[in-house]
Amino acid sequence: MGAVSTAGDRVDRTERTERTPKQDRSRATRQRLLEAAVSCLAEHGWAGSTVSVVAERAGVSRGAAQHHFPTREDLFTAAVEYVAEERSTALRALFPQGATGDRRAVVTALVDLYTGPLFRAALHLWVAASNEDQLRPRVTELEAHVGRETHRIAVDLLGADESTPGVRETVQGLLDMSRGLGLANLLTNDTARRERVVAQWATLLDQTLG
Questions:
Q1: How many other CB atoms are found less than 10 A from the CB of residue 34?
Q2: What are phi and psi of 146, to 5 degrees?
Q3: Taking the model in full, what pTM does it have?
Q4: pLDDT recorded at residue 193
Q5: Could you give the angle at the alpha carbon of 83 between the alpha carbons of 113 and 195, nearest 5°?
Q6: Which end of the chain is more exposed for a tag (fewer CB within 10 A), N or C?
Q7: CA–CA distance, 104 with 101 (Å, rounded to integer)
Q8: How far apart are CA 27 and CA 118, in angstroms?
Q9: Interior angle at CA 9, CA 3 and CA 12, nearest 5
Q10: CA 136 vs CA 133, 141, 143: distances in Å
Q11: Which of 86, 93, 92, 110 is nearest to 182 (CA)?
């Protein structure tokens, strides 16, 4: 004979069934808040991006926002890190088998990381951190983490051997150049010049990396 289901068993199953949708809703709310925070930061800067503004944009209450992120600093540092991780995943997905045979495509993809709303949002966060003592250490730690991950991805996609002298500096120079192109693009449409620079860097990388 099979085991008899008790009232306690039924209650446990009901609680588990109810808990899963609640967890799903909580994750969805958190994601909406993170995406809204990045959009607000990119469009309005630090001064215009309050928790209330983000909550309204995400379609949730201020209380719900503070349940997930107790402070403004929690919200915006988490938001930039979240989108950076999403972009890193997307970047790897562009080249699932690696791309050592098409370094220009890799350079273009890396440069694109610094010409979208994520970079604009991160830039506002950096500027705010330069004036906000409470925010500075968190943003410094975040930037170090994002920088290391981006560097690892670049090395993998370019097929770079960093044991060769000068290769690590060449990859870092590529990322620094990409950031500079992103800054130039904030004020004017820099597409034409950017394409020429990308082509030249791809040539230099082929010569340096072999």
A1: 23
A2: -65, -40
A3: 0.74
A4: 87
A5: 10
A6: N
A7: 9
A8: 21
A9: 150
A10: 5, 9, 10
A11: 110
CA dihedral in degrees (155, 93, 118, 153; nearest 10)? -10
Given this model, what pLDDT does residue 69 score?
A: 95
Dig out the tokens for 11 from the structure. 């209650």
Cα–Cα dist 169/171, whole Å: 5
Phi and psi of 45, rounded to 5°? 75, 180
Q: Among positive and negative, which fits the CA dihedral 148, 151, 155, 157?
A: positive
Amino acid present at 63: G
Among candidate residues 183, 112, 29, the one with its CA nearest the CA of residue 37: 29
SS3 4: coil
Q: 116: which 2 tokens?
A: 């979208």
Token pair listed for 36: 């809204």
Query: Distance between CA 183 and CA 163 in Å, rounded?
Result: 31
The pLDDT value given to residue 208: 87
Give per-10-residue mean pLDDT for the chain (210 aa).
Answer: 53 52 85 91 88 94 94 89 82 73 87 82 86 86 88 90 92 92 83 90 88
Q: Tokens for 38?
A: 């990045």
CA 87 vs. chain centroid, Å, equals: 5
CA 100 to chain centre: 24
155/150 Cα distance (integer angstroms): 9
